Amino acid sequence: MPLRLPIPSSIFVRLYGGLLLVMSLVAFCTYLLLQVVNDYRAAEYRENMATGFFRLIAIGIERQPEGSLRQAWLEEASALMDTKITLVNAQLAGFDDGELEKLQHGRAVVRLNLQKNYADIFSQVSSTRDVYVQTRMSKVSEQQAKAMAIFLLDDLEHYRGREHERLRELQTYFPFPIELIPLDKSGLEPDQRARIKRNEVVLALKEGGVAHNSSIRIIAPTGMIGTVLIMGPMYLFDWMPVQLLIIISLMSLLVITTAAYFLIHPLEKKIKAVEGAARRIGGGDLSARAAVHGYDEVSQLAYAFNSMAEHIQRLIDSQRELTRAVSHELRTPVARIRFGMEMLADTDDADDRYKQLTHLDNDIDELNKLIDEILTYAKLEQGIPVLNFETIDLGGLLQQVAKETEALGVKATITTHLPPEGTVAEAEHRYLHRVLQNLAGNATRYAKTEIALSAGVYDNYAYIAVEDDGDGIPEKDRERVFQPFTRLDDSRTRASGGYGLGLSIVSRIAFWFGGNIKVEESPRLGGAKFVMTWPIKQKHRTTRSFVNHKT
């Protein structure tokens, strides 16, 4: 049977659809990655901004003795922050290992509650005791920003004369600069300078085109004349930093490029395999084939190319064999004609001349039949038969061929095993009749007493069978009998007739019908049994495409 392959997928769908899928996945993964990275960065930003501020609060609490003085300090700090500040222990706060490690290193822990829109902030008061400060904040106000400067100035009061050294110690807890500078170098506007001289804390906002360029500075007066404390610039959180976008874009391009390579490279390899095979065939190596597997369109092209190459190679081999066989088959009738012409020239007897003319006529008739057989085989072998499929009554065809065979005066009895009435199949009537006629004629040469014809359908396939009670065909010769000009030893005599092309023609017709033919031992008669099968439903076409057609 011909090789039937699945319908190939479109290269457009494979490439562009695959790339679209990859790009969609990359976009989705990029979105998730941005969310994860930004959530992590936002958490780091909140903790970094809170660490220095709440470290100052923890230091202030630690300086107060336990009791009413500490409680009074907490109340005063809570009023300054406009939010309640309490003390808790680790068990009450429920810290995990990661949070405890951060707290032990002086960092703040921020627990964000998105549903209720607030954050609980913790900082360790003492490294030797289980005491932590807790503050719940829903937003950062101007009052709280100014309170940060007040807490820092309060801490510097304990380091008079060493303020700059103390600021360097505290700088490790702040993600922005903290420094003491002369007022005239602060870059403040006149109204801001005036407020500083009135001992007010000033917030200076610098707006930029993007979040990364927008910043806030806190400027507070100190006890030192002409000197101010500056905290900042504190840059607002940038949800989409340029560096992050560049990294993610490069990663996305790398993923898309890699995916495109794995999508296109297999097709490129297959095309190169077909190209290499074509070059080898062009160089004279007809056995070259493209080693390609799969069901895409390039694979289908490779399968078609291999089938075409196989077909061309078989045609060339068949042509060579046909040339040798034809030259051999033509010698016998041509030699007899030449001999008859010589005999006709050497005799003057009218009866002898008539007898020789009769022999010449028979030899010419035999030569015409041989030429017809060769032309029929060549037409089928070259792959250009015009097939007009129609619905054939298999029972009627059996009866027709049986009558035609009996009319030849054969000695064997011809029996037909008719299928149920109305059994039909699609076929080309002329060629199907030729198959059954050739098989029946072949059987008449070797049958002893009986020839049986049968037909039928099963599993969407139709079949015709011819069997006889002759000596049969040895198993080793059952494939060889379908090769052109093949005649087994016991059929080489002229009395048996034939040219060794009948079964080859049958084999080619079976192929063009999309079926096959085989020979086996007849279970009922004991001789040879030829069975041809083909699909009941045929595609209405005039030629078949190149496919694997070994029978």
Outline the secondary-structure elements:
Elements: H1 11-63, H2 68-81, E1 85-88, H3 90-93, H4 97-104, E2 109-113, E3 118-124, E4 132-137, H5 142-156, H6 163-170, E5 178-182, H7 190-197, E6 202-206, E7 215-221, E8 227-235, H8 242-282, H9 297-346, H10 350-381, E9 390-393, H11 394-406, E10 413-417, E11 424-427, H12 429-446, E12 450-458, E13 461-468, H13 502-512, E14 516-521, E15 528-535
Parallel strand pairs: 10-12
Antiparallel strand pairs: 1-4, 2-3, 3-4, 5-8, 6-7, 7-8, 9-11, 12-13, 13-15, 14-15
Helix pairs in contact: 1-5, 1-8, 8-9, 9-10, 10-13, 11-12, 12-13
Please give a structural write-up.
The longest helix is centred in the N-terminal third of the chain and has 53 residues, at 11-63. The protein has helices at 11-63, 68-81, 90-93, 97-104, 142-156, 163-170, 190-197, 242-282, 297-346, 350-381, 394-406, 429-446, 502-512; strands at 85-88, 109-113, 118-124, 132-137, 178-182, 202-206, 215-221, 227-235, 390-393, 413-417, 424-427, 450-458, 461-468, 516-521, 528-535. The model is unreliable at 1-8, 489-497 and 541-551 (pLDDT under 50). The chain has 551 residues and is an alpha+beta fold. The chain folds into four domains: 1-139, no CATH class; 140-240, Beta-Lactamase; 297-379, Helix Hairpins (Orthogonal Bundle); 385-535, 2-Layer Sandwich (Heat Shock Protein 90), CATH 3.30.565.10. Helices cover 50% and strands 17% of the residues.
